Amino acid sequence: MRTSRPTNIILIGMPGAGKSTIGIILAKQSARDFVDTDVLIQVAEKKSLQDILDTEGYLALRQVEERVLLSVNCTNHVIATGGSAVYSPAAMNHLKASGIAVFLHVEMEALLKRITNFDTRGIACSPEQTFAELYQERQTLYKQYGDITIDCANRALEAISTDICDQLRFFRSVSAEKVP
Hints:
Distance between the termini: 13 Å
Strand order of the largest sheet: 2-3-1-4-5
Shape: globular
Order of helices and strands: EHEHHHEHEHHEH
Helix content: 40-55%
Structural class: alpha/beta
């Protein structure tokens, strides 16, 4: 159970959902700092996500991601996670101890239109796994960890950010009512 009010906003969702782009807008709108954990991974490893995948494999990338996520200790931030962050219960529990997780839901068909660089994007999945299989597998995890789900279908980025702020205010008011 949380002992203090969570101040971070943790964005989770598929590659191409807009976590980084919406995260920057949301940080400005909510007067928070912004951190992109994919960038933290690349800085820590001194190579791109795709380079890690190509040289060490997808499981190694997930291990590096877990290590980096467990090292994130901040307050009043918007944190854009990598799409595979939800594979680590330890990392997700660590992040959620100081924040509220927002699942940016985008239908698979829309993601397929957005992502044009599957081979170089650094998506942590088995080489045998199709994008459709990855999408199905991750939806359960996003729903499990997301405190709030935001439907991003055919919406302007600013409208999504405003919706997140509105939902967070509602979430916090409901959560406050539950505390004795």
